[in-house]
């Protein structure tokens, strides 16, 4: 199994602690695990005509690495026919350059500084974990170069029968809580929640703001577990991640003969976890990956109590899911009622209560056309899912 790290094509690596394969995981699952690095940011994806026709260098790196794995995995105990993939103009303004000659005159420090900026080394990732402002889209790094990418990726997948492979698509209910845009989100009142949503979405029209506040309206709740942070993170995660993931799954299921499965993780860490710049108490992206890689103890150390029984059950459930999917060639998942998309969405929740339980967590299956139906129809019909991100 090959791990291709995420990070918006801007950050991360194939050996990030807690988010990469380990010898412990390989022994436990009895799999050959491979990860690799590829060039990121301007070093991997800067496209200027003066630099020549070659672009998407980071993708070429990944393609070369996958070819190497295919050609060399047999001596390591793997099967080259069963290699499974497991994912995931701003620069010019900061550099002060508009052509290749200017960029070549900069020293390496200035080039990297122009990419990272002075005040935001995450390259505005927090902006992508916030409600969008009309017209400000996530940065697009990939270029249709006519060689590696002959069409936009979605169109290439639809047109290429070789791309017809089983796919497992997952997301988290509060995905953006890993590093949300608002600094003081943890301490919001319900009035602050309403004001922030209004200020952000009014750029699209007051009607959209009113509808959003109706759909995500729990301001009169007496449940102390329902907080402005939880509701706001759910709203932005639906818009940026969940609904676009559902749309992608539907498109793949419509065009592929191979099975497509979709799941949503709604299992919180036992204690708030700081993976990036925010202590996240909810089911954030990529908490289920930390669990899958069996690296929970890096973020929930023994000195503070270690992982809880539910944390460990999340690990077991996600590992069993991936193992079943990979070893069956994408034809099987470990939940009896989990039918192919677009029939069913599987939701992993806390609390082991049914025959589909893994210790302290439970798989629940619901009809795909009912899960988040109203919310996704709203965001999609208003065009806001075009502000999606995939990592």
Please provide a written account of the structure.
The protein is an alpha/beta fold and 391 residues long. The protein has 2 domains: 1-150, no CATH class; 151-390, Rossmann fold (3-Layer(aba) Sandwich). Helices cover 38% and strands 10% of the residues. It has 15 helices and 10 strands. The chain has helices at residues 23-29, 41-45, 57-72, 90-95, 100-105, 108-116, 125-128, 153-159, 190-201, 206-215, 228-255, 287-292, 296-299, 309-327, 373-381, and strands at 2-3, 34-35, 85-86, 167-172, 260-266, 273-274, 279-280, 344-350, 357-358, 361-367. Strands 4-5-8-10-9 form a 5-stranded mixed beta sheet. β9 (357-358) and β10 form a beta hairpin. α9 (190-201) packs antiparallel against α10 and α11 (228-255) packs across α15 (373-381). The longest helix has 28 residues, at 228-255. Mean pLDDT is 85; it is low at 88-95 and 115-123.
Quick rundown:
This protein has helices spanning 23-29, 41-45, 57-72, 90-95, 100-105, 108-116, 125-128, 153-159, 190-201, 206-215, 228-255, 287-292, 296-299, 309-327, 373-381; strands spanning 2-3, 34-35, 85-86, 167-172, 260-266, 273-274, 279-280, 344-350, 357-358, 361-367.
